Amino acid sequence: MTREFDTPRQLLPRDSYFDDEWLARERRTLFDRCWVWAGLEADVAAPGDFLTTRVLDQQLFVLRDDAGALRAFHNVCRHRGCEVVEGKGNVGKAIRCPYHRWTYAMSGALRAVPNEDACFGSVERERLSLHAAAVGVHEGMVYVNPHPEPPEPFEEWIAGLDEHAWPHDLGAGDLKFAGEVTYEMRCNWKVFYENAVDGYHLGYLHDRTLGPLYPDRNVWRRVGRHAVWYSTERDGAPQSSSVLTARFADGAGAARLPGHEAAAYPGVVMLFPLTILSPSPWGFYVSILEPVDAETTRMRAMSWEPSAGGASPTADARGSAGFSPVAGGVLPCKPEGSGRRFDVFGEPSVMRLDDLDTHPLESGNFQIEDMWICEKIQRNLHSPKFEVGPLADGPGAESPITHFQQSVLEHVGG
Ligand code: FES
Ligand SMILES: [Fe+2]
Predict the structure, then answer these.
(1) 99 close to ligand 1 (CB < 6 Angstrom)
(2) What CATH number has the domain spanning 164-412?
(3) Among residues 5, 116, 193, 304, which is most buried (max CB within 10 A)?
């Protein structure tokens, strides 16, 4: 019998989850050379179009050049380091830094320096091009890598994913951007990732939000370093959503995308190491992990929902930002009694567990339930009694955790 995953066991040392030196090594060997979701190809369709993004503390931008090719650069002027572009838009014929107007061609080459003769004599332009980054496109979505020549080329990184393709086309106009929220969690990024690929906890921690997704009723499939998740609760092909999720979303009036009744594509696509995609019959969700420090992780979650085809979902019917659609997009928040509610798809905002005025298990939101657990794990990582016991075997249990840890170790080393 071939196994989808190796027999699960804990491979990473305990201090890898809270040690600053570990995070510094992860930056050098993994994050500084990893592929991360950056935006939509439709937003950089015409020459001069650009979008900005970041990978941890590296500011980057993607530009459609005058020959029609996509390029990526570090958003760092070679004069005094100002960001050269902001937000998204079109640079026109050249990239102009707003500070002293050093001007770069779309190739990144430094083209013009104001008052060059008087102020500098001359500037060695050939040594002062914008620093290149790398860019790739898959399914209409743009990915960047801070490294100009990544050790893992984009095609290699994304290989195999097409076998698990989803039908959503974010450039086709049948989905509209619904908003974003940032979750801030007091845990190491790996604690969150391991929880996200743990199929064993779903039917227990999330019994009220995701339903009885016991280890034999959900499955992770490995795709290179990535993993994709399906519900196997129903007869027939594995599906993107749990039975309870579908009941909540449909019951709350969320519009389904036309033709998504069967939804036989993955519900969660964990793209190692920082990107989570979640296609569903009710929309499309992208979440980006941002390790802030060794014990703090932010997750920026963006959502698209059907632009037509039914009643516009109410805020309560929108997905819980995170990586799957579940009812409960509005969370009751402190201060108690003020009536303040936290619309996870309202204005961009940061959500922390402390903001809740209800117990996480009462939130009706599986993302909040996960944050609650991850912070509990993180606290106990410092206990002298902490030890990882036996892990549950199987692709709908804890085996994907070991697969993830193998990838971390391949980058960071033992
Ligand atoms: S920092 Fe960009 S021109 Fe001076
Ligand atoms: Fe979870």
Answers:
(1) yes
(2) 3.90.380.10
(3) 193
